[in-house]
Each structure stands twice: as C-alpha cells, then as structure tokens.
Specification:
Length: 342
C-alpha cells in the first residue's frame, strides 16, 4: 500500500509542479496587469490633475483680468470725474472772470518787471462806477490832450460827397481805409451817384472792389442801398439814424460815421481802434465795441463829442496800437492817466 502511495505521489508530482507553475504564471500576469493598471491610473490621475491645474490657472487669470479691468474702469471713471470736476472749476473760473469783467490783470509783457493792478481813480461818479476808471476831470483832460494831438482830425477815407462817403464806409467794414481808397476812385468814376451805382448792379460793381474783403456781399449791399436811395430819397443820403440803419448793409457804426463826418452831428462811432483805446486808458469799459458805443456818450464832455471819434481812432491807429503798443507809451500824451495795466 505504501509502495502504491509512493508511486502515485511520484506520478502526480509533475502535475502538481505544472499546476504550481501555472498558478505562479497566473499570479505573475495578474501582478503585471495590476501594475499596468496602477500605472495607467497614475497617468490618468496626473493628466486629470494637470487639466484641473490648467483650469484653475485660467480661472485665476480670468479673475485677475476681471479685477484689472474693474480697477481700470474705476480709475477711468475716477479720471473722468476728475476731468469733469476740472471742467466745472474752469467754467466757474471763467464765469468769475466775466463777473469781475476787466478787474483782472492784463497779460504781462516779458519786458515788464513790475505790474500793478489798476484801481478806479478817486472821485469816479457812482452812476459811472461800473463803466469807467477815470473821474470827470481825468476824462476831460484825456480828451483835451487828444484834441491837442490832432487839432483838425479828418476821416482817412477819400470821398467827394455824402453818397461816396456812405459807400466807402460800407466797404471799409473788416477792411483798411487804405484798401478802400485804392478801389473807390475807379468805382466812383463809373458810378458817381445812387442811380448810376444801382444801374451797375452787383455784377458790375464787383470787378471794382475785388481787392477788398467780403467784396461779393458788399457789391450786393451797394446795389441794394443805391436802389433804395434812388427810389425813396431821390438819390440823397438821409440825415437821421433811423433812416440810415434801415438801408441794406448799414449798421449803427456806419450810420454814426456818416452822420458825424458828412453832417457834423455829435455821434461817436466805436470801431476796434476806439474800443482798444477806451479799454486800455480806462475811459470806458465794455465787452465789445457795440457795448462801449452805447455806454460812452455820457462820459465825454460836450465840447469834444463832435470830434471824439477821430481823436480816439487816430490815437489807436498810430499810438495805442494792437501790438507792441508799449513801445509808444513813453511818448503817449495820455500816459499819465492810462490804466493799461487793468
């Protein structure tokens, strides 16, 4: 029995060995598969972690951009608000400057080391306190000195009668007297009166005045006012303000010049020269020539009214000039009373 068992064991030993080998092989394969699976899981985990990290980075970047954009928007809004506030301040400053009118210092010339703020002279009448810096005695003396400087002032426009003067003054708007005087001799030779000027028409007038600024409109004005003079006034220039300013192309300044120069009436027309002198001297303050023209009559003594326009105009044209006027101050006849620092 023992011999049989031994033989049987000996016979089954290879099978057991084969089974063991097979089991070992299976175990090994399972180990390889498990290892491969673990490796695969690790790789997938790493990939997922990388993707998650990338998403987190993108989210962070988006948050940063949003924060930056928000900050920039806030900064821009703050800047806009600051600019808006600055504009308001500037507007307020400008408004204050206008309220003060001309009580601010004028622009300072680089040559001047000391600049004073001009104050109204003592004794300025209460009713004129807002429109002049000179008292009655000073205003009289200023006009007297200007009269002495030009005792017989005359218009620098060339003309032979009131009609030619009217036409010349219309042409002189925004142009120099010199340019008008070069054009009018030929024009007045071709059309010496209202009837002949109207007959020329705008197209016929234009060639004579093309060297003068705004000649197209002025040619039309001359035709229309000439027709009206011919039809309503028998070619004569009317002698009243109301009638003159009703003519085409004739404004307050033109009418006053004609009434003053042609008819000797005490009207004071204010052009850019007169306006400049009045402002610098402090004789009459205003925002524009028309403003000064309305305010100045009561400030001028009756003795000077007839020639006041020319006294002030000629002084502005040749002495109190628009540019480099301080070069003339040393010899200026009214320097003693001038408030040009104002």
């Amino acid at each position: 029995e023992a011999s049989k068992v031994a033989k049987s064991a000996k016979a089954s030993a290879p099978k057991v060995k084969a089974v063991k080998a097979s089991a070992a092989k299976v175990t090994k394969e399972k180990g390889v598969k498990a290892k491969a699976s673990a490796s695969k899981d690790t790789k997938e985990t790493k990939i997922k972690a990388t993707i998650a990290s990338s998403k987190a980075a993108k989210a962070k970047n988006s948050t940063t951009k949003a924060s930056t954009a928000k900050s920039a928007a806030k900064k821009a809004a703050s800047g806009s608000k600051a600019k808006a506030e600055e504009k308001v301040v500037v507007k307020a400053s400008m408004a204050d400057a206008k309220k003060i009118n001309r009580k601010m210092l004028a622009p300072v010339d680089s040559k001047r080391e000391i600049v004073r703020k001009a104050e109204p002279s003592k004794g300025v009448e209460k009713e004129f306190a807002d429109i002049t810096l000179l008292n009655k005695e000073e205003r009289f003396e200023v006009m007297r000195l200007l009269e002495e400087q030009n005792p017989n002032p005359k218009s620098e426009l060339n003309f032979n009668n009131s009609f030619e003067l009217l036409c010349a003054v219309v042409l002189s708007a925004q142009a120099t007297d010199e340019s008008v005087n070069k054009a009018t001799p030929a024009l007045f030779k071709a059309a010496p009166d209202a009837k002949s000027m109207a007959a020329l028409g705008a197209d016929g007038i234009a060639p004579y005045i093309q060297s003068i600024g705004l000649w197209k409109n002025k040619a039309k004005f001359l035709e229309k006012l000439s027709k009206e003079l011919d039809e309503k006034y028998d070619g004569k220039v009317p002698e009243t303000m109301e009638e003159l300013i009703a003519l085409p192309g004739v404004g307050s300044k033109t009418a006053k010049v004609v009434l003053n120069v042609a008819f000797g009436k005490p009207y004071l027309a204010v052009d850019t020269h007169v306006f400049r002198v009045c402002s610098r001297i402090g004789l009459c303050l205003g925002h524009c020539p028309g403003d000064v023209e309305n305010k100045i009559p009561p400030l001028i003594d009756e003795r000077f009214m007839k020639e006041a326009h020319h006294y002030l105009l000629l002084h502005g044209r040749y002495n109190c000039t628009a540019r480099k006027f301080e070069d003339h101050c040393a010899k200026c006849v009214v320097a003693k009373y001038c408030k040009h620092n104002y």
